[in-house]
Amino acid sequence: MRKRILGVPASAAVLAAVAALALTACSSSSSGGGSAGATANKGSLTVAAFDFGESKILANMYADVLKKAGYDASEKTLGAREIVEPALEKGSSNGGVDVVPEYLATFTEFLNTKQNGANAKPMASSDVQATLAAAQTLAGKAGIDVLTPSAATDQNAFAVTKEFATTNNLTKLSDLASYKGTLVLGGPPECPTRPYCEPGLEKTYGIHFTGFKSLDAGGPLTKKALQQGKIQVGLVFSSDSGIAVYGLQVLDDDKKLQNADAVVATVNKKVDSAAIDSALNAVAAALTTDDLIALNKQVDINGDDPAMVAQQWLTSKGLI
After folding, report:
1. DSSP of the chain, one letter per residue?
2. Which of 53, 85, 96, 98 could form a disulfide with 45 if both were Cys (CB 3.0 to 4.6 A apart)?
3. Which residue has better confidence, 209 or 153?
4. Which superfamily is assigned to 12-153+261-316 in CATH?
5. Domain boundaries defined on the chain
6. Is residue 218 very low, low, confident or very high in pLDDT (cuts 50, 70, 90)?
């Protein structure tokens, strides 16, 4: 699932999936091939992606610059953070992965609730440096390094159709508190248990949902369900270029439920090195939110291959 549905402790089923991951061979697809000619003599690295386009683009970027730096790096798509983060703690030598493109505030709160309990006081905020310091402390306990955040951000957003917004005079999430009709929320299966999804909308905004429909994490299923009237509110993402294409309108998060999430590289401490940090921080320094929107359009709307899109962007920035 996508990143910003902030964390709760993993269920037994998810933990079982993690255990299964450790028992399987760490086969993975090659990313792009944009680093042809680099000598892969520094060891093998596996870069994990969450199961959505933007994460696959970022993971392929990371794999390509790591190849350029001399590593035998490959991208592997896993799934939800409850699987990806434990895999990062393990490292590929123990059946896990070595590098993950993460989202700062979400990653911080995932580790916070994992280590300190579901009711832990939030440690992420709109202050990037304070959130980074908290993330580094929490991640350090898990054997993970958190590198330099990018200027590129992405975060949870909630959309309705433009027609629904106009008919009901909706511009912000707090406007939904007084809505009395059918109000079905659509999003990934984790949404009903995540504090920055359904519970957060209900607690922070006083919204009363009449139902929930399990779909995808801001993907085409959610956007199509909105278009078709199967749901009235859907979880989308602020860097999603498909919002306009589907005729949707994002409602303003006027009570600041969501923290802005900066794209940030996370690395298993056992494999981290100055060469890895330099390669990944170079991506962070070049990447902007506008880049994310444009790259997402190529993959999500045009249907281009994430590996190819990543390679082209890196080439345009002189990074491979």
Report:
1. --TTS---PPPHHHHHHHHHHHHS----BPP--TTTT----S-EEEEEE-SSHHHHHHHHHHHHHHHHTT-EEEEEE--SHHHHHHHHHH-GGGTS-SEEEEEHHHHHHHHHHHHH-TTPPP---S-HHHHHHHHHHHHHHTTEEE-PPPS-EE-EEEEEEHHHHHHTT--BGGGGGG--S--EEEE-TTGGG-TTSHHHHHHHH----SEEEE--SSSHHHHHHHHTTS-SEEEEETT-THHHHTTEEEEB-TT--SPPEEEEEEEETTT--HHHHHHHHHHHHH--HHHHHHHHIIIIIT---HHHHHHHHHHHTT--
2. 98
3. 209
4. Periplasmic binding protein-like II (3.40.190.10)
5. 12-153+261-316, 156-251
6. confident
